[in-house]
Each structure stands twice: as structure tokens, then as C-alpha cells.
Amino acid sequence: MSVPIKRILLKFSGEALAGSAGFGYDPEVLLGVCRQVAQLAQQGTQVAIVVGGGNLFRGAASVGQGIHRATADQMGMLATMMNGLALRDTLSSLGVNVAVYSGLGVDGALPVFDAFAARQALSEGKVVILPGGTGSPYFTTDTAAALRAVELSCELVLKATKVDGIYTADPKKDPNATRYVRLTYREALENQLAVMDTAAFVLCQEQSMPIRVFDMFSEGALAAIVRGEDVGTLVTKE
Q1: Reported confidence tier of residue 145, pLDDT bands at 50, 70, 90
Q2: Run of H or E including 69
Q3: CATH topology of domain 7-217
Q4: Is the CA virtual torsion 220, 10, 189, 53 positive or negative?
Q5: Is the pLDDT of residue 1 over 60?
Q6: Which of 116, 179, 128 is nearest to 10 (CA)?
């Protein structure tokens, strides 16, 4: 019998919010994502969210054009903060209690991340949104997701992607690619599978934080995972 998951860290890219436009926000996509999260919160699942900022700014594309890498990363963090505010207001409009804690604080808009306060907010049934990355340059939002999941005592990192799990090769390029149902951290490293960036993956490995990679836009996938069903690909220690 599958066991429901109580507390999760949901990580998805900023590009996911742009929909087919590729930039900015697709209102229907944003609302659809928030409805899924709202459903989980209403059922008692404690949800923390880390979102990227690629729908608004791509830092890597600016490096070498007069912008220092550290500055580009800070600009990217600001983009994630804009996405965090969009998620906050949309979730609130659906009747969800929300708390936001940012890696970089902005007076009057976003308080700085506080692990104790964030854990308390989750325990009170609030959806906790975590923009601003780690607050430091040279770390991706994957690393922020892994770090926050550990700090908030989450049971699982859910990484939403464009495909329904981890494959032996790119399924869009290789018709013979097959999906892994389960992997160990060692297998993922040995096979050079791009689960998360290296720093994020190593942190999850060291802290035995399981990662499940799935397609968030597959209807019912997120709710099924929380119910304990085997959706996507699960990466664990053993």
C-alpha cells in the first residue's frame, strides 16, 4: 500500500510559466500550475516551491557581453523573485494561504529566507514560495531547491521537466530511448544522466534526499506522486 507524502519541495523552471510563447507569463499556464498546488494544499500536503527565472532573464546569455557572471546571476535571482510574486498572488486568488521567503530580501516586498519561519509556515498549512535562489551567485535554482528541501525537512524533491522522467537518451531525438523507473544516485552519476546540476545532486546524495523527475503538465501526475504512486523516475540512495 502506497504511503502519502506529507511535505514536498516542488522545483520547476521559469520557462514552464511562459507556455508556448517562451517569454513572460502564459496566464492559463500560471493558473493551471497554481490550481495543482492549491489542490495539494487543500488536501493537507505541505508544499514548498522553488521556481527559476528563465522566462524573464537568462543570465548565461549575458555573460561576456559586458556583464560579470556574478551580476548576471543576481539579475537571474531578481527574475525568480518576480515569478515568486506572481505565484504568490495567483495562489492567494485561489484561496491558498501563502508565505514567501527569498534568498535575497527586498524591503516592503520579500522577507529574507528564515528556515525556522518557513518550517513553521509549512506546519500551519501555508504554501511556502522560495524565490531568490540561494542568495549567492554561481549557484543554480536546482541547488537552491536541494538546499531548501534539506533545510525544511522535506520528504522529497519533485523536479518538473518537459518529459515524464529520466531517459537513457533524449527521447525527442532517440526513438529507442527508454525511461528509468528508479535509479540510484551512483547509477545516475555513472551514466552521466542530467538529473540536476552537480552541486544540487551531490547535496541530495549526501543528505539522502530522494528526487523524483516528472512531467508536471501530465494531467494528475503531481497529485498521483503525493498519493505515493510511482510516477516519473525516482532517484534514491538504494
Answers
A1: very high
A2: helix 69-93
A3: Carbamate kinase (3.40.1160)
A4: positive
A5: no
A6: 128
Residue 65 backbone dihedrals phi, psi, to 5 degrees:
-115, 35
Residues 6+ apart with CB under 8 A from 84: 51, 100, 102, 110, 129, 130, 131, 132
Q: What share of the chain is helix, strand, coil (3-state, %, to 5)?
A: 40, 20, 40
Write the CB contacts of 120 (distance below 8 Å, at least 6 apart in sequence). Answer: none
Contact, 36 vs 96, CB < 8 A? no
In angstroms, the CA 24 to CA 41 distance is 26
Burial 171-182 (b: 16+ CB within 10 A, else e): eeeeeeeeebee
pTM for this entry:
0.94
11 vs 160: CA distance, rounded Å: 6
pLDDT given for residue 3 in this prediction: 78
Residue 125 pLDDT > 60:
yes
Q: Is the dihedral of CA 207, 7, 18, 67 positive or negative?
A: negative
Enumerate the domain spans of the chain: 7-217
Least confident of 46-55, 82-91, 182-191: 182-191
The x, y and z cell numbers of residue 208, run together, are 539522502
Bridge partners of 93, per DSSP, are: none
